[in-house]
Amino acid sequence: MLKMKKVLLFDLDQTILNRNESLLKFLNWQVSYLNLVPHELKKSFINRFIELDNNGSVWKDIVYSQLIKDFNIKKYDTSELLQSYINDFNKFSTAFENAPKTIQNLHAQGYTLGLVSNGKTPFQEKNFYALELTDYFSIIVISEAIGLRKPDPEIYLYTCNQLDCKPSDCIFIGDNPKADIEGAKKIGMKTIYFHPTLTLHPSLSDASIHHYDELEETVRRLINPPHF
Known about the structure:
Layout: E1 7-10, H1 19-33, H2 42-53, H3 60-70, H4 78-88, H5 99-108, E2 112-117, H6 123-129, E3 139-142, H7 143-146, H8 153-163, E4 170-174, H9 177-186, E5 190-194, E6 207-209, H10 215-223
Parallel strand pairs: 1-2, 1-4, 2-3, 4-5, 5-6
């Protein structure tokens, strides 16, 4: 009898990478380093960026173009600020607490690990590389690089094909109920919904966690459910 593969697929933003914290660190640096606005407007600028960014769903040329208008910025144009974002964001990449240690443990326990992220290339790769976890991952899939986006079933099937596994071999860990949980679940993967301030988990997910300290036990429970 063939032994089932143990494959764990992770989203990046707000799953491994604490994007909210990373973004705040980057914006504090960028506003000060480039002297974009007077000190008394710094907080307003950052808050407006976060509002326009809409949890990363709006690309930054649109965000910076609006910010330049809102704050009457003359020293820099959209392309210059966008280039700073692309080049410098990764310097502030911050993982969630205990994510690196947990990922190392799971790898040491024999799990095959993969990353599947919606986003731009090579921007997302650089953010991930900065976390120094690439040695533990067998595959990195970025949507723009392959022309597919979650929750399209094809991006999950592409990843399975590259790893020579079946969807039923996989557990997908992510923070987006639609892209990560619903998309993976539809093709037969088990799912873990991750959210640090979680109250209720999506009805489709098999499990939910608030913190990486919970992940190893949750994975074990999904692979070997208790029998009563």
